[in-house]
Amino acid sequence: MTTVDRRAVQEMLEGIYTPELYSERAIDAAIKALANLPSSNAQAVAWQPIETAPRDRTEVIVGWNDGGVDHGHWSGEGWTDDDRGDWPHGPEWWMPLPPLPTGDAKEA
Description:
The protein is about 20% helix and about 15% strand. The protein is α+β, with helices and mostly antiparallel strands. The chain has 2 domains: about 1-45, no CATH class; about 45-100, no CATH class.
């Protein structure tokens, strides 16, 4: 299990969202998700500028400065989730999808 600094997670969220768009519950959920990652992956799961995102149709989590979050990939012409076509205003942020949990979902 990875140790996650609560203040670092809060600062990360503050850098992306206004305080009205996240809560203590969101901070707790982010800490729990990060803490359960193997330590080698902990740094990889953080919001990054969209310019650094993969452009090979890899599915990622995308975010906008207004607080919107979705999943999507680069289509070759723009960012899309394939449900609505390319987004006219592409995302500003991305992060990799976390690995699926292991074990029985009923035990989580």
